[in-house]
Amino acid sequence: MTVANAITQIKQAIAEAEHTSHRPPGSVSLLAVSKGQPLSAVTRAFEAGLRDFGENYLQEAEAKINALADYPIRWHFIGSIQSNKCKAIAHYFDWLHSLYRSAHAQTLNDARPKDFPKLNVCIQINLNDPNKGGVSPHDAEALAKTIVHLPNLHLRGLMLLPNPTQTTSALYSDFQCITDLMHHLNRTLHTDMDTLSMGMSHDFKTAIQAGSTLVRIGRSIFGKRA
Ligand SMILES: *Cc1c(COP(=O)(O)O)cnc(C)c1O
After folding, report:
1. What is the mean pLDDT of the chain?
2. For ligand 1, atom 12: residue with the closest CA
3. Is 131's pLDDT higher than 90?
4. Which of 106, 180, 96 minimizes the C-alpha distance to 143?
5. Which atom of ligand 1 is nearest to the CA of 200?
6. Distance from the CA of 200 to the center of ligand 1, in angstroms?
7. Cα 217 to averaged position of ligand 1 atoms, centre (Å)
8. Ligand 1 centre from 159 Cα, in Å?
9. Fewest CB within 10 A of the end CB: N or C in the chain?
10. Average pLDDT for residues 195-218, to the nearest whole number?
């Protein structure tokens, strides 16, 4: 299947999931995860109309972002953050989905070039998975407060990377927990978070049922990674 055909199919599946979940058409946006894919895959997806691309590895991302500097692409960092990479992330990206340490928030804020728009950030939540990053729902409030006070960051929402081996109903309740948490934080902190970054190739329909506003799709668009 070509990248363009795959994108048409995914958009159709997103529209169907919006419909069956009684969500407004267009309420879920599509982030193409291009990690492990060549530059030509990104340009094909761009030509098919996509403007948001997600990358996990900084070196690989920098090469693509530099090569495509003339393209009006929004680049999203979705990988795990190391302290010594914060400066480059703040320089190269429009969005960051995987923030969960307040020290990183501070470093990213200080490194964001002053003439750039604010860096959009989502807090990565961890629901009891010792092998993954993320902050517990309980500690999310303190981190959200920290981020809100940093002038070069814009707190946009929450991100979840669920345990993929769960049943569909367990996945659904994990996603729902993140949706409820964002609404709870918006009420208590008077924030205006609007992004629930949840759902990948294998579980995006469940994520949309539970309120996802942004799905991160790699393999179903581009096929296997290198
Ligand atoms: C790789 C990755 C994705 C995309 O996963 P697919 O299964 O290829 O759709 C989404 N989110 C994160 C954080 C990833 O690392």
Report:
1. 97
2. 78
3. no
4. 106
5. 9
6. 6
7. 6
8. 12
9. C
10. 98
Share of the chain above pLDDT 90, in %: 96
Ligand 1 within 6 A of CB of 81:
no
Average pLDDT over residues 98-116: 98
Phi-psi sector, 22: left (phi>0), alpha (psi -120 to 50), beta: left
Is residue 181 lining ligand 1, measured as CB closer than 6 Å? no
- Do β-strands 95-99 and 153-160 pair in parallel, antiparallel, or remain unpaired? unpaired
Three-point CA angle 66, 220, 39, nearest 5°: 20
Residue nearest to atom 8 of ligand 1 (CA): 218
Ligand 1, atom nearest to 217 Cα: 9
Q: Mind listing the pLDDT tens digit for each residue in 64-106?
A: 999 999 999 999 999 999 999 999 999 999 999 999 999 999 9
- Of ligand 1's listed atoms, the one at least distance from the Cα of 225 is 8
Cα dihedral sign, 35-90-65-15: positive
Q: Kindly give the residue spans of alpha helices, DSSP state H, lying in the chain.
A: 3-20, 39-47, 58-67, 86-92, 102-111, 137-148, 168-189, 204-209, 219-222
Q: Which two tokens stand for residue 153?
A: 């960051």
User: How far, in Å, is the centroid of ligand 1 from the Cα of 206?
Assistant: 15
Angstrom distance (rounded) from CA 67 to CA 90: 18
pLDDT of residue 48: 98
